[in-house]
Amino acid sequence: MKICLFTGMAKKLSLYRIMDIAKEIGYSGIEISSRFHLPVELTFTEMEKIKKRAEDLGLRVVGIYTSHGGFSGLSPEEAEEEIKVIKKYIEFAKILGGEFVKVNAGGPSPDMAEGKHFQKASQALKRVCDIASLYSLRILLEIHGGGLTETASSSLELLNLVERENMGLIYDAANMYISGTDYGEKSIRKLGKKIMHFHVKDMKKVEEKEPSALEIKGKFYIHTLLGEGDVDHLPLFKILKEINYSGYFSCECHKETEVIEKARHEFIRVKKLLEEAGWKE
To answer: Which domains does the chain have, with CATH numbers?
Structure first.
């Protein structure tokens, strides 16, 4: 069982503090959010310090999650600037011993997108993948609402255009649930080995807009602890085991509650579900 902690669930804490928490709870790795914990202005010397801290704790830095890219809606000049930033994160990931850098293809969502959006995004992503291949790293896209990779089918369409072995997907069942697209067995089997990382979080549909609710396509959802929402991960974990998924399960809960309690709850819950699905230590 490879369970890591996504640092975005602890936005207000320092990266070093999050690593301490992850180690204390039992996580084997961390997925670093660039937005909150790894600004591009950091130096390679600072990367070495982070690497040493992780090694001292026995933690794996699994990858770096960025929101950079958005290529389908950029001018050539803007795309060049984004590629430069992504290259820096690729270099960071190599120093840290990570497996991937997550980037953003751009939008709009598949029901509004045209072929030109996929073509434009794919051309830039090919370049990003080629840079990453020089460092033996992967480039991942997240299945997420509002973009070209909102559904399993649209994600696969884009990956087929990119045609790079080191490009894959972050599967996020909760994102797919609130987007109203299938997140079950059919989608997992369709994507197969292209699923290279898995975000685990839960969300619940509510009837009326609450202060913390997200409005998605006219419906309202709130973040919950795993097991308190509507997304059933157990069948997904069973299918992933069947298809020999070898990546990490990254705990990403965004419910506003005490960080240590939240991180511990998600770890225990994911470990239990994986055991029920037949995964072993």
So the answer is: 3-276 (3.20.20.150)
